[in-house]
Amino acid sequence: MAQDLHFPIGEGPFSWDWLEEFENLDLSGQTVTITGPWLGGEQDSIRRVLAYFEDATGANVDYSGSDSFEQQIQVDTQAGSPPNMAIFPQPGLAEDLARQDLLVPLGSDAADWVRENFSDGDGWADLGTFENSSGEEDFYGVMYRVDLKSLVWYVPDNFEDYGYEVPTSMEEMIALSDQMVADGETPWTIGLGSGAATGWPGTDWIEDLMLRLHEPEVYDGWVTNDIPFNDPRVIEAIELFGEFARNPDYVAGGPQAVATTDFRDAPQALFDIPPRAFMHRQANFIPAFFPDDVVVGEDVDFFYMPSYDGKDLGDPVLSAGTMMAITRDSNATRALMQFLQTPLAHELWMAQGEFLTVHLGANTEAYASDVLRRQGEILLGADTVRFDASDMMPAAIGAGTFWTGMVDFVGGASAQEIADDIQRSWDDL
To answer: Angle 129-316-345 (CA atoms, 0-180°, nearest 5)?
Structure first.
């Protein structure tokens, strides 16, 4: 099978030494089944990673992707016929299954490993810690592939032509926005449209601003509703979002365009001649919706959405990603989980592209491009990394009233009204 491996063993920027402990395992005849959300090119990428585990151990790993993963994993686990492992794009779903005793605890040693080996490891260890049906906490989930949301996209030529410099603090970013307005230009393009999911880009704005206004413990309490949605600190973040999205001088097309512009179309304002806007806050995946001839790192670039100089909160990062958990235990499954925690298993996907990691041991030289390497270094350098709040809230909130509340807020409702409405919907649960 070695001839089928995507990267020759012993060559390139990979931590090949990690293979040795798995080459001493004989798992011949054993199969590990995995279900997850990855399809298409992502499915090809993970299978190329898994091939090295198969080659080293003799085990067979069967990964199957599904566009209805969230529904299928619930059906399979409750029916008693789950795969060995599941890849969760939303920790909230993993938490629901853990509460029903449908996930296998990984133990405190695994949690300690995450604390020691991941950037802001305490945060990632807490993210994978859930209660079982008895209310006892254990560690269940390890993050594997991470998305970076705290990015602002811009066209370097536009900045150069107009004499603007990339801001390094929130104060500078607001001052730059004001300067653009004074120059008769529009600083921001924002679009909340996303079909049935319209509103979610606004939730990302609120989450990034919460991390820049308040301590991470406030963010954590907000996610669980230990801090109510209508707490003054949450309202402060909503109102700050309004200073961008509801300011007719700040946003392309005015506030009325924010709610109706599809998030995939919003970046186009950067590329118009002359530009209709200069900055766009969106996650690392947004280049998929840039014009085909645009080269990231040349025609368009990004900077970290900066924190306040005047607040002692360090550099926080908002993220999303996928969590690995065991749904049916076996020796081979435990071995595969160990393999996927090695730097090598991260590097093998990093080198294929479209993969970011918070693994401190992974060689950043393995990234497929300088763009990905820079994004990965933002994650590694963050003082605080927190997962997308709406993805961890109950679906009726995070994928319901929070989404619609953002549209209503941009449409003119007050932050207090929106926060009160969302809190009432949470109380109704």
So the answer is: 55
